[in-house]
């Protein structure tokens, strides 16, 4: 396993890298990242700036859905290149004044990192100068319980994130790990999953002949199966 610093050619962390570590001040005290979250999944995300409307709508939605992520053993950690007092004032304003859809009095309880030096944002490729050299883009890193980056999504300043997709990514990664399967396009929890191609002709032939429990194939390279019933109930 190579770390970001040992083997970085693109200037950004990549899937499979160990999440770059740092210590930071947050609205919930000092954190040591990612060590403090060992054993949990983490959604580590950046937003462009406090006191901006799209970010406000996103923070309210993160707060509303925090318990859904917690049920998936997933911790939310936010960051912007604003300072701690700006974060505190913005989060207080959101709680006291902002209503959006069915949300009001929303309290943000997950840590929001201050990063006025941009040190952390730069480590994670969150500053993308052709979009903005003074604000982070809307980055989302999905980090597994061993501190490995498993997926990343980057959005521009003008586009708010889709929270159903963030949740689907976490459930999809957890499902792929637990059952050693792959996740097809537009998959939703409860739907059948892909059985990775067999690595020997014998296994592929058995699969095609329907000899593997619950596995059905359209061709030797395209086999699917349902998940166990208890997983469907979880979904
Ligand atoms: C927003 O969150 O509304 C926003 C932030 C930076 C630039 C444009 C929009």
In short:
With 235 residues, this protein is α+β, with helices and mostly antiparallel strands. 29% of the residues lie in helices and 21% in strands.
Characteristic key phrases:
binds benzoic acid, 5-stranded mixed beta sheet, 2 domains, alpha+beta, elongated, Glutaredoxin, Antioxidant, Horf6, Chain A, domain 2, 29% helix, 235 residues, 6 helices, 3-stranded antiparallel beta sheet
How many E-type strands? 10
Name the helix and strand elements from N-terminus to C-terminus, one letter apiece. Answer: EEEHEHEHEEHEHEEH
| DSSP strand content | 15-25%
Question: How many discrete domains?
Answer: 2
The CATH architecture classification of the largest domain is 3-Layer(aba) Sandwich
Sum up the overall morphology in one term.
Answer: elongated
For the biggest β-sheet, the strand order reads 5-4-3-6-7
Explain how this protein is built.
The protein is built from 6 helices and 10 strands, in the order βββαβαβαββαβαββα. About 25% of the residues are buried. The two termini are about 30 Å apart. It folds into 2 domains: about 5-170, Glutaredoxin (3-Layer(aba) Sandwich), CATH 3.40.30.10; about 180-230, Antioxidant, Horf6, Chain A, domain2 (Antioxidant, Horf6, Chain A, domain 2). About 30% of the residues lie in helices and about 20% in strands. It is elongated and about 65 Å long. Bound molecules: benzoic acid (BEZ). Benzoic acid binds near residues 48, 53, 135 and 158. Benzoic acid (BEZ) binds near residues 48, 49, 53, 54 and 55.
């Amino acid at each position: 396993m190579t770390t970001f610093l040992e083997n970085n050619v693109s200037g950004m962390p990549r899937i499979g890298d160990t999440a770059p570590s740092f210590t930071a001040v947050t609205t919930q005290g000092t954190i040591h990242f990612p060590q403090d979250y060992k054993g949990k999944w983490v959604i580590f995300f950046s937003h462009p700036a406090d006191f901006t409307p799209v970010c406000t709508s996103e923070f309210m939605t993160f707060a509303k859905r925090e318990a859904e992520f917690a049920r998936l053993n997933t911790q939310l950690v936010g960051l912007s290149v604003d300072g701690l007092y700006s974060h505190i004032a913005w989060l207080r304003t959101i709680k006291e004044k902002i209503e959006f859809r069915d949300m009001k009095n929303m309290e943000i309880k997950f840590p929001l990192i201050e990063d006025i030096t941009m040190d952390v944002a730069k480590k994670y490729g969150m500053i993308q100068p052709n979009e903005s050299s003074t604000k982070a883009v809307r980055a989302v890193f999905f980090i597994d319980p061993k501190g490995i980056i498993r997926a990343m999504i980057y959005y521009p300043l003008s586009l708010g994130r889709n929270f159903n997709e963030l949740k689907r990514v976490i459930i999809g990664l957890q499902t792929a790990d637990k059952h050693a399967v792959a996740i097809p396009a537009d998959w939703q929890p409860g739907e059948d999953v892909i059985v990775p191609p067999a690595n020997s002709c014998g296994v592929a032939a058995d699969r095609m002949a329907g000899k593997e429990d619950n596995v059905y194939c359209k061709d030797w390279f395209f086999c699917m199966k349902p998940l166990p019933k208890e997983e469907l109930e979880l979904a």
